[in-house]
């Protein structure tokens, strides 16, 4: 087993994914789900359609896609203009311990294998941040060259195996589906880490000392990190650590900490109803006003404005919160 801390982190994240259901959707139908206190992942095995998460726009999906639904967000899958079917009202046991949710009478034109990852509030980055951004990712699309860097060919094979399992469930079906989902999740996380909007440099991921410090930041951005404490985690002297970190990431370790805190705050603002001052404290800011200024500098708008844009139907309780500065 690899000794690299980030490798162990990815393995631990993938191990939290558990297969939960299979969804079948007939053409002209759509399948609705309430919000869950977990991250939901849908692996599109066959067919195409659209997904709407919360009050957001409809977004298309195709075979080989992964649909990522954050906690506390209801969602709808299938034909945007189709007849609606509630997942809670149209379900039955399927295979070895899974549930089948269906829309229409079949045959089902779209098939999805679905999994869930329990939310862990103690780790402010976690999967929600690594999987943040676009809710639909073509992990195993039809163009090998376009996805080669993220293991597209490998993912196509894994999706084909999942489809074969769903078509003919056999002994060990749930364990097999879960293992295949976890392979895809690791490849997806690898893509987000190396090729995402804020990628982590490959050279840094291969340095066990720096990656240990990165994990300490990403798992607990609210902690009282300092250059000295992070250098101790990395097993390096303060100056040598600061110089190595800056060379690898193009920024100092404390700048990295602040960005990790603000990313965690953005997620909490988008998917929870927590007051802004609670979000600020939860990511390591003692002062709401200091947090608001830092957030506006990073995201171009204050926390309440960001929340309104991310969740347009949200009750605007934050608008009447006083800037307490405490």
Q: How would you describe what is shown here?
A:
This protein is an alpha+beta fold and 326 residues long. The protein folds into two domains: 5-195, Jelly Rolls (Sandwich); 202-320, Arc Repressor Mutant, subunit A. The protein has helices at 5-15, 126-130, 144-147, 152-167, 173-195, 202-205, 208-219, 227-234, 238-249, 253-271, 276-282, 288-299, 303-310, and strands at 17-25, 29-33, 38-46, 49-53, 59-61, 65-69, 75-78, 83-86, 91-94, 98-103, 110-118, 136-138. It has a seven-stranded mixed β-sheet. A five-stranded mixed β-sheet has the order 5-4-7-2-8, with no helix packed on it. β4 and β5 form a beta hairpin. It is globular and about 65 Å long. The model is unreliable at 121-125, 142-150 and 313-326 (pLDDT under 50).
Topology, pairings included?
Elements: H1 5-15, E1 17-25, E2 29-33, E3 38-46, E4 49-53, E5 59-61, E6 65-69, E7 75-78, E8 83-86, E9 91-94, E10 98-103, E11 110-118, H2 126-130, E12 136-138, H3 144-147, H4 152-167, H5 173-195, H6 202-205, H7 208-219, H8 227-234, H9 238-249, H10 253-271, H11 276-282, H12 288-299, H13 303-310
Parallel strand pairs: 1-10, 2-8
Antiparallel strand pairs: 1-11, 2-7, 3-6, 3-11, 4-5, 4-7, 6-12, 9-10
Helix pairs in contact: 1-5, 4-5, 7-8, 8-9, 10-13
């Amino acid at each position: 087993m690899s000794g690299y801390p980030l490798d162990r982190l990815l393995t631990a994240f993938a191990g939290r994914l558990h297969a939960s259901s299979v969804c079948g959707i007939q053409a002209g139908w759509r399948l609705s789900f309430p919000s869950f206190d977990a991250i939901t992942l849908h692996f599109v095995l066959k067919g195409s359609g659209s997904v709407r998460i919360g009050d957001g726009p409809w977004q298309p999906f195709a075979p080989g896609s992964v649909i990522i639904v954050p906690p506390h967000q209801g969602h709808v899958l299938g034909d945007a203009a189709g007849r609606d079917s509630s997942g809670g009202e149209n379900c039955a046991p399927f295979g070895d311990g899974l549930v089948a949710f269906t829309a229409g009478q079949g045959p089902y034109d779209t098939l999805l294998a679905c999994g869930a990852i329990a939310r862990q509030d103690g780790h402010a980055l976690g999967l929600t941040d690594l999987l943040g951004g676009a809710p639909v990712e073509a992990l195993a699309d039809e163009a090998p060259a376009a996805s080669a860097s993220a293991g597209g060919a490998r993912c196509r094979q894994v999706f084909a195996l999942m489809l074969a399992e769903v078509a003919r469930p056999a002994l060990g079906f749930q364990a097999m589906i879960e293992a295949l989902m976890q392979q895809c999740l690791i490849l997806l996380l690898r893509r987000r880490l190396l090729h995402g909007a804020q990628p982590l440099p490959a050279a840094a991921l291969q340095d066990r000392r720096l990656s240990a410090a990165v994990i300490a930041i990403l798992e607990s951005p609210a902690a009282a990190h300092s250059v000295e404490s992070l250098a101790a985690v990395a097993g390096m002297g303060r100056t040598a650590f600061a110089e190595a970190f800056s060379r690898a990431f193009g920024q100092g370790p404390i700048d990295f900490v602040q960005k990790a805190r603000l990313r965690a705050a953005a997620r909490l603002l988008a998917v929870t109803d927590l007051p802004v001052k609670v979000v600020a404290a939860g990511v390591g800011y003692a002062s709401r006003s200091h947090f608001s200024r830092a957030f506006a500098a990073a995201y171009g708008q204050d926390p309440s404005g960001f929340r309104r844009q991310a969740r347009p139907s949200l009750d605007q309780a934050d608008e009447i919160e006083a800037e307490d500065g405490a």
